[in-house]
């Protein structure tokens, strides 16, 4: 990776300049890919993690401070995304195990766990998009960001009871839509 002043590029990127993003991507992609391959346990995941790295780079370009070395800052971003990916994989494993354990539990809890597992495995994005925004927020924060119900209530500045009712409603809607897709 070239030793250049990245600040102007990152500022332009944070302002939506696509050319700046392309330049930063072209100059950093080999470095990022190598580091991801070293850190991740699966080479098959490298391309997906790489996408996550550049999405996060777009989101956090405005947080870069010129007094810090770009390479160190960028490496930190890569390491965090690899960790997030591993955590997501581990969460999928735990959810699948939970589904197995909940086989004899109430239908609501079992359905919730099954939906979580299916969501991570089959990408529920098209089905999620059909949910109203308030319900979608709860599902994304709960299952994709690993937030507790209390954290969601604080984050959205709504009562815990409202979070729980929206969660219940969203799961019911997802179940119904998933069953329609399964046909």
What does this structure look like?
- InterPro entries: RNA_pol_sigma-70-like, RNA_pol_sigma-70_dom, RNA_pol_sigma70_r2, RNA_pol_sigma70_r4, RNA_pol_sigma_r2, RNA_pol_sigma_r3/r4-like, WH-like_DNA-bd_sf.
- Belongs to the sigma-70 factor family. ECF subfamily.
- The protein is mainly α.
- It folds into 2 domains: about 80 residues, Rna Polymerase Sigma Factor, Chain: A, CATH 1.10.1740; about 80 residues, Orthogonal Bundle (Arc Repressor Mutant, subunit A), CATH 1.10.10.10.
- Helices cover about 75% and strands about 0% of the residues.
- The chain contains 9 helices and no strands.
- Helix 8 crosses helix 9.
- The radius of gyration is 20 Å and the shape is elongated.
- The protein starts with 6 loop residues before the first helix and ends with a helix.
Radius of gyration: 20 Å
Largest sheet, strands/sense/barrel: none
Structural class: mainly alpha
| Helix segment tally | 9
Q: What is the total tally of β strands? A: 0
Order of helices and strands: HHHHHHHHH
Keywords: DNA-binding, Sigma factor, Transcription, Transcription regulation
GO molecular function: DNA binding; sigma factor activity
Domain RNA polymerase sigma-70 region: 25-91, 128-175
Protein name: RNA polymerase sigma factor
Short description:
This protein is mainly alpha-helical and 183 residues long. It has helices at residues 7-14, 18-39, 46-60, 70-101, 107-122, 125-128, 133-144, 149-156, 160-182.
């Amino acid at each position: 990776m070239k030793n250049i002043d990245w600040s102007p590029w990152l500022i332009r990127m944070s302002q939506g300049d696509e050319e700046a993003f392309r330049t930063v991507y072209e100059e950093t992609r080999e470095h990022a890919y190598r580091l991801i391959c070293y850190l991740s346990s699966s080479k098959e995941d490298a391309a997906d993690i790489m996408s996550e790295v550049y999405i996060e780079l777009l989101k956090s370009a405005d947080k870069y401070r010129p007094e810090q070395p770009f390479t160190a800052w960028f490496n930190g971003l890569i390491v965090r995304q690899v960790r997030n990916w591993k955590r997501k994989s581990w969460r999928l494993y735990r959810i699948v195990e939970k589904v197995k354990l909940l086989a004899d539990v109430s239908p609501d809890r079992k359905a919730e766990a099954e939906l979580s597992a299916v969501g991570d495995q089959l990408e529920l994005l098209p089905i999620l998009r059909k949910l109203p925004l308030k319900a979608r927020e709860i599902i994304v924060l709960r299952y994709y960001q690993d937030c507790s119900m209390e954290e969601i209530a604080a984050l959205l500045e709504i009562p815990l009871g409202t979070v729980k009712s929206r969660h219940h409603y969203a799961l019911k809607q997802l179940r119904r839509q998933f069953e329609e897709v399964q046909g």
